[in-house]
């Protein structure tokens, strides 16, 4: 089989031994697997040939992009039976159509590269997340990634018009249609997006582009409560309309930990405002002018301050200040890493119930595990919270991690009680696979298994992910 793979992609693109190791460990170092080889095809035809070769030898296939996932979805098991298919060489931008506002690109393209290519064409590709300098669009599609602009533009699924996919039998489905309307039967595209490589190998995508905003305004807000943040979000939606592109929320202690750990960071407030229990970060993208954006910002924020919903506001006066505000938000995971391993949750809750969820769940966590730190932040605009639990002062991280299963159950049971989801944007992978039967009905899981069995009857695509056997 290895000889055939070398014949398909060339000897330099079939990695074994030490060369393969970086592909066999997930980004967090949580999962470590083994593989017969790592194969790096350079074209869709080569991907199809690799899949056919693996099918002929009954060898499982695990697809990996930028390897930035947080749930172990791109890491093989430790049996050593799988082939890892790396998409890094599928990195071409095939076409940009500014009249149709679309861009057709290959799955191994790094997200930041796509943002920059769109900007050069005087267009915006709005998907944006912390790992954009290394994650790939194929991985974004496989997990239906969210990011900071979901409020305005939607998840990756909403940004994809058509796909090219290699099926579990090694056939190529060319669905790269740049159409906003296509009502010809089942929507195959949406089956593959979010399936984490368990139904097919995404090799290319046609993406939506948007006009570049004429002006952007960013503000950091100091708030007294999460309830006030939710109320102000409603008023911001009404005041800004579709111009509101981002609305992030951060618990005060979380942001204060960032500035404590990183000397170059600072919260843009003085006195009591810098010690607020909650902060919000919002961004406005205006299609008229900088003056119009500034006026709208000042009007809506001024009214919120007058109403007592916002205690203080700092509006970025230039691009540098705006980047500094976003850098604060994006440094939270780095601060968490500095403080030691924590138990992470990526959940979504109906926005109207988020404040109650946090209050109830925080109380339950402290009742059972006194002193641990509740690290709460996320994308309030789309109801996505990163609800993490960090060790108590002086508590060895191993002691907390030993409680992981119990804490997962507590938090996820609370999520279910509030009609939420245990995965908002990170996927299921290995991490949450065994929890699916606890929160999905037998009917829903049965339908998912039927789809898996229909599209991958031999069970060779990314086995052990999303669904248990």
Write the layout of secondary structure elements.
Blueprint: H1 2-9, E1 14-15, E2 37-39, H2 44-56, E3 61-64, E4 83-86, E5 93-97, E6 102-106, H3 111-120, E7 123-124, H4 137-143, H5 150-153, H6 156-159, E8 160-166, E9 172-175, H7 188-192, E10 201-208, E11 210-211, E12 215-223, H8 226-240, E13 244-251, H9 252-261, E14 278-286, H10 290-306, E15 312-315, H11 319-330, H12 332-339, E16 346-348, H13 354-368, E17 373-379, E18 384-390, H14 397-401, H15 404-417, H16 436-439, H17 442-455
Parallel strand pairs: 2-4, 3-4
Antiparallel strand pairs: 1-2, 5-6, 6-10, 7-11, 8-9, 8-10, 12-14, 12-15, 13-14, 13-17, 16-18, 17-18
Helix pairs in contact: 1-2, 8-10, 9-12, 13-15
């Amino acid at each position: 089989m290895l000889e055939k793979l070398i014949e398909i992609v060339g000897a330099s693109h079939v990695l074994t031994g030490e060369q393969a190791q970086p592909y066999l460990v997930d980004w967090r170092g949580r999962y470590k697997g083994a593989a017969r080889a790592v194969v790096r095809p350079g074209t869709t035809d080569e991907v199809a040939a690799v899949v056919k070769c693996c099918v002929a030898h009954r060898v499982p296939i695990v697809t990996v992009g930028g390897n930035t996932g947080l749930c172990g979805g791109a890491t093989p098991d430790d049996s050593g039976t799988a082939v890892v298919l790396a998409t890094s060489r599928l990195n071409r931008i095939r076409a940009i159509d500014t009249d149709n506002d679309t861009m057709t690109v290959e799955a191994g393209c790094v997200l930041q590269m796509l943002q920059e290519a769109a900007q050069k064409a005087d267009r915006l590709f709005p998907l944006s997340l912390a790992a954009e300098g290394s994650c790939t669009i194929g991985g974004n599609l496989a997990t239906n990634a969210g990011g900071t602009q979901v409020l305005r533009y939607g998840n990756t699924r909403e940004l994809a018009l058509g796909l090219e996919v290699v099926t579990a039998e090694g056939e190529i489905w060319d669905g790269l249609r740049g159409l906003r309307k296509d009502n010809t039967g089942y929507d195959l595209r949406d089956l593959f997006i979010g399936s984490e490589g368990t139904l097919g190998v995404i090799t290319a995508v046609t993406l939506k582009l948007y006009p570049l905003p004429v002006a952007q305004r960013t503000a950091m807000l100091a708030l007294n409560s999460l309830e006030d943040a939710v109320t102000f979000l409603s008023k911001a939606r009404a005041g800004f309309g579709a111009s509101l592109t981002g609305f992030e929320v951060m618990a005060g202690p979380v942001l204060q930990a960032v500035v404590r750990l990183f000397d170059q960071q600072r919260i843009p407030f003085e006195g009591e405002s810098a010690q607020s229990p909650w902060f919000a970060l919002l961004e406005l993208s205006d299609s008229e002018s900088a003056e119009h954006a500034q006026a709208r910002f000042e009007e809506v924020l001024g009214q919120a301050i007058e109403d007592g919903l916002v205690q203080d506001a700092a509006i970025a006066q230039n691009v540098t200040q705006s980047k500094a505000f976003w850098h604060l938000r994006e440094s939270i995971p780095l601060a968490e890493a500095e403080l030691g391993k924590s138990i992470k949750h990526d959940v979504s809750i109906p926005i109207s119930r988020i404040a109650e969820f946090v209050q109830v769940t925080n109380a339950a966590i402290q009742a059972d595990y006194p002193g641990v730190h509740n690290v709460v932040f996320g994308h309030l605009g789309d109801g996505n919270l990163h609800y993490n639990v960090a060790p108590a002062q002086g508590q060895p991280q191993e002691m907390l991690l030993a409680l992981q299963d119990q804490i997962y159950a507590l938090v996820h049971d609370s999520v279910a009680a509030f009609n939420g989801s245990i995965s908002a944007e990170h996927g299921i992978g290995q991490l949450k696979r065994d929890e699916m039967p606890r929160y999905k009905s037998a009917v829903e899981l049965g339908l998912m298994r039927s789809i898996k069995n229909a599209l991958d009857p031999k069970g060779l695509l990314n086995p052990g992910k999303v669904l248990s056997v």
